[in-house]
Structure formats: structure tokens, C-alpha cells
Amino acid sequence: MSPTVANSPIHQFTNSLRSPHGRLLDLRRPQVMGILNLTPDSFFAGSRVASEKDLLLRAEAMLRAGAAVLDLGAYSTRPGADDISEAEETRRLLPAVAAVRKEFPQAFLSADTFRAGVAEAAVQAGADLVNDVGGGTLDADMFATVGRLRVPYVLMHLRGTPQTMSKLTHYEDDLVLTLLRYFRDGLAALRTLGVTDVLLDPGFGFAKTAAQSHELLRRLPELQALGLPVLAALSRKKMVYGPLGLGPETALNGTTALHMVALQGGVKLLRAHDVAEAHQTIQLFANTFPMAE
């Protein structure tokens, strides 16, 4: 590992993330982020929300099942998904954030968007976290926006766009070293803007083949060099169902197996479609490997 990566001074994590609205996300132990898709074309049909009533019922079920965060997204980032306008993304997302916030005032809400304008509007509507699949690369205003809002931020690794990423899977250098440098540079930029509450997402399946995603999963402990919590978003993805010859609808068991591997690699937040099963995995992990408070 490059010394300039390993010795990077950008580590201020203190076991919890503070929302600009005053809510806290405690990450002393791993937690679950429940996925609420507001798109009509998400890769897993079972995750799509069709109405406000459906949204609130799913949100309640996830919270009861143990979700510490609800992640609301209105732009499909599956490989080859159609691009939609910022206006359309906003139209889908903001009423949903407002509705969930009104119904569940104590819930910790995440806005899954790579657009700074959408992120700002979502935070104003009650979102506590910005989950940016672009890691600041798809909107030059994102870092400054989250810095001004003082909102916790998920910095994800991506190359290209959701429309082009599947063609950008060749890496000249070691994959994990490439990610460490990417995160180091992003964190340095965020720190200059006052952003300290950051989670890292290696971007499973984003500009990475299934084999590369499995390599990342195996090498997750190496990301601990940056001293920040890691989010794993691998639920029902191709890296799970592809090697098994299945589809997203039958990938729950495989997802659970890889969630355990991710937890053993030090992950603090599992982004999952199936909250109860992910929460049970964390409970069993905690019983098997007791963690200091």
C-alpha cells in the first residue's frame, strides 16, 4: 500500500453521524440501511414503491425490522438505465421524503442522489444523509453543497456514469489501491469544505465486474486504513446471483451469505432490500464476534 494513502490524515470518525436536523446514527455496531426505490425500473422489481401508501407501509415494516436508516432513491442506477431529468428526479423524491419524515419524525433518512440540487432540496425536506453514487464526480457542486449543509455524506467509488460504467471495468493499477487513492483525494476535498461525517462505499458493481466486486469484498479490511466507516451495497446484485445462475428475485440467500463476509471485513452499514434478514445477520455476527462498545 502506498504510504501516502495509508498515512492520510483525514480520519475524524467518532462512532456516530450527526444530521443537520439533530438526529444521530450510531455506528458503534453495524446497522442496516433499508432501500426504498421510487423508480419504475429498479433492477429488483420487488423493491419498487408504487404509491405513498405503499411507501409508508414499507418504511414502517423496515423500521420495525431493525433498519437504522431508510434510503430513498428516485434515479435508477442499474447498468444501462435511462437517464432522467433533475426535475423528474425531484418530482419523485421530495414528496416521498416529506411523507416519510412526517409519518416517522425520528427516522434517519438518506437521499440517494448524485445531483447537488436534488440533495439540497431533500435535506431541506428532512433528509439526514446524502448517499452519492457519483462520489462528487457527476456534479461538481456536490461537495460544496454537503459542506454548506453540514450533512453526513456517502462517498462512493464510480467511474463514468450509470449509462457507461459497464464499459469502464479495466484498471491499470491494483483495484484496491485505486480506490484508496480515489477516497483519499475525495476526503481531502471534503475536509477543506468542512465535511467530516463521511461513509465510504466501494461501489460494488459500479464500473466493476462480478469478479472485481468479489475481490473488493475479500479485501474490505484494507479500506480500514482510511479510518472511516464503510457501507456495503451488494444486496441482490449481479455479484450475488450471477455466480449462482439465478436472478435478483432469488438472490436473498446469497445476499445474506455475502453480508456476513462484509461484516467480517469491517463494514458498518449494510444497504439492503431485505431488512429483517440483514438485521438478523448482524445479530448473529455480533454474537459470534462480540464487539466492544
TrEMBL record:
Broad EC category: transferase
Reaction it catalyzes: (7,8-dihydropterin-6-yl)methyl diphosphate + 4-aminobenzoate = 7,8-dihydropteroate + diphosphate
Entries under Pfam families matching the protein: Pterin_bind
Annotated signal peptide: none
Annotated keywords: Folate biosynthesis, Magnesium, Metal-binding, Transferase
The protein's Enzyme Commission number: 2.5.1.15
Keyword Magnesium among record annotations: yes
Pterin-binding domain segment(s): 30-283
One term of GO molecular function: dihydropteroate synthase activity
CDD domains attached to this UniProt entry: DHPS
UniProt cross-references to Gene3D superfamilies, sorted A to Z: Dihydropteroate synthase-like
The name this protein goes by in its record: dihydropteroate synthase
